[in-house]
Specification:
The complex is a heterodimer of chains A (about 400) and B (about 110). By secondary structure, chain A is an all-alpha fold. Chain A is built from 15 helices and no strands. Chain A has one domain (about 1-205, about 215-390). Chain A is about 75% helix and about 0% strand. The radius of gyration of chain A is 20 Å and the shape is globular. Chain B is built from 1 helix and 5 strands; from the N terminus they run αβββββ. Chain B has one helix at about 5-25, and strands at about 45-55, 60-65, 70-75, 90-100, 100-110. Chain B has a 5-stranded mixed beta barrel. Chain B is elongated. The chains are: A mainly alpha (about 400), B alpha+beta (about 110). The interface of A and B includes residues 35 and 168 of A.
Chain lengths: ~400, ~110
């Protein structure tokens, strides 16, 4: 029992560190860990599972902090930068984190409630939903474009992003989504902040007013499960589909939505592994390689998700407060330049010079969307268009 | 000239260059035993002899062998690539993936090197 508790605690500590590290996606952490653990270290499988699950859940809670405070998101939190950065400029960065945290915690509860339904229905409906995915994505793209004020430019930006996504994914580079998404959403935001000489005001550290999130919860309940078992569909596509279903949505609700979607996708990916033996997240792939999932192991995984989610909330609140208190002590332009240099170095190390080319193109396109006042959700064409080709 | 007006053509040009590069640049040839976990989802190129062909629902699985080992390469029917014959030596480019705890390649391009 002691070793399992140690594994849980270690997972939370390391998940907190990797979550706070700008631009690092959980799959990258898992790849690194799987390489490390391929040297037989004699760790019991159950402890390893608890460690990976608690690390993954904690990471999904914490990784909104660098996205919102530093404008440096990873693959799953890319869309949170947009409303998060706006709130940061209003002195409400801490509140933005609280909304994502509420979403994450609600996502945890939804995942636990959905688990039995998922186990029962998934094997029956998997093929049917997979076949309709092309239609769902095509309709979402259409709605995304026609709901923009400047439809023509929105179409151009969506298609440019789509081709950029296709090109990036077909280049021989590692982790193509790292330069692609950090450029589109992170670097373009940071460069705009530097050029506009954005000053970050003193951040309020107060509890936000409670909001009725019924519609947002309902949307994430219906959309997120799709993304935990369908290939080519991730949390960003889920957020866009939900966004289109809900139409007008406040930025606070959007942050809540992304938080809940990320947690549901992560949690249900383990249930998917159990129900149909398909792994859709790096963490589920890793666990699937360790052992086949029995009902007992699934129960341990669900308990770990719940325990680490609750503990990760405290860790998120603690670090969000630290960021909110200290971010105004430094020049935001200097922080932005340091983060830009960090992203550049990270992309160069992981994705090599070709990755820098992707980073340059995606930043340019992100800046184009900002300058022409095209909604930046159009940039998600970089994932939606390749996904349409994939399922077609 | 307003720099804003340059952004759209500059974006178009850089994406066009990336598209051309993605069509022309091929990954370096890798030996089968050199394929590693951290290359998952990356584009790779291997060369090997087809020692087994299995036709399944909408896919063809080729077992490739080189001097260092064997690997399964999956050919999806929707890619409409020409299916090679057994014992041919081919060069396959595709994404490295994992199925049933084994590395495999999802083929995008295939070339006969006999």
């Amino acid at each position: 029992m002691l070793i399992e508790i140690t594994a849980l605690a270690l997972g939370i500590i390391i998940g907190t560190l990797t979550g706070l590290f700008p631009g690092i996606h959980i799959n990258l952490v898992i790849v690194f860990l799987s390489t490390l653990l391929s040297y037989n270290l004699g760790i019991p499988i159950l402890s390893l599972i608890i460690f990976i699950v608690s690390l993954s859940v904690t990471h999904t809670f914490l990784d909104f902090i660098p996205g919102i405070f530093l404008g440096c998101p990873d693959e799953d939190t890319a869309l949170s930068v947009l409303p998060g950065h706006q709130m940061l400029k209003e002195g409400k960065g801490y509140e933005a984190i609280i909304h994502t945290l509420k979403g994450c915690l609600t996502g945890l509860l939804i995942s636990i409630i959905l688990t039995p339904v998922f186990i029962f229905l998934l094997p029956k409906f998997y093929e049917l939903i997979k076949q309709s995915m092309f239609l769902i994505l095509a309709i979402t793209s259409l709605f995304l474009i026609i709901s923009d004020e400047n439809k023509f430019l929105a179409f151009i930006i969506f298609m440019f992003s789509g081709f950029l996504g296709i090109a990036s994914m077909n280049l021989p580079i590692q982790q193509p989504l790292l330069p692609l998404l950090t450029g589109l959403f992170g670097c373009s935001t940071l460069i705009t902040s530097i050029s506009k000489k954005v000053e970050i005001p003193k951040q309020e550290i107060s509890k936000p007013f409670s909001r009725k999130n019924f519609k947002t919860i309902l949307a994430s309940v219906f959309v997120s499960p799709l993304c935990s078992f369908l290939p080519g569909i991730g949390s960003n596509q889920a957020a866009i589909i939900s966004y289109e279903i809900l139409r007008k949505i406040e930025k606070q609700d959007f942050l809540f939505l992304i938080g809940s979607i990320n947690t549901i996708i992560m949690s249900l990916s383990f249930v998917t592994l159990y129900a149909i033996n398909k792994a859709r997240t790096g963490s589920a792939v890793f666990i699937g390689q360790l052992t086949p999932l029995s009902p007992k192991i699934l129960l341990i995984i669900l308990s770990t998700i719940l325990a680490s989610g609750i503990l990760a909330s405290f860790s998120t609140l603690f670090f969000a407060k630290i960021f909110a208190k200290h971010i105004t002590k430094f020049s935001y332009a200097k922080i932005s330049i340091i983060v830009l240099l960090f992203i550049f170095a990270l992309v160069l190390i992981i994705s090599k010079p070709l990755g820098i080319l992707v980073l340059f193109s995606s930043t340019l396109l992100g800046l184009t969307a900002i300058q022409f006042n095209v909604r930046r959700t159009q940039l998600m064409g970089c994932l939606i268009l390749p996904a349409i080709f994939f399922v077609f | 000239m307003n720099p804003k007006t340059l952004l759209l053509p500059a974006s178009f040009t850089s994406i066009f260059i990336l598209l051309i590069l993605s069509l022309t640049i091929e990954p370096n040839l890798t030996k089968i035993n050199q394929l590693k976990q951290n290359q998952l989802d990356s584009l790779i190129k291997i060369q090997g002899q087809i020692i087994k062909i299995q036709e399944k629902n909408k896919i063809t699985i080729l077992t490739l062998k080189d001097s260092t080992g064997t690997i399964e390469a999956v050919l999806f029917d929707k890619t409409k690539l020409n299916k090679p014959a057994a014992n041919q030596t081919i060069e396959a480019i595709g994404k490295l993936s994992k199925y049933n705890n084994q590395l495999q390649i999802n083929i995008d391009k295939i070339k006969n090197v006999d």
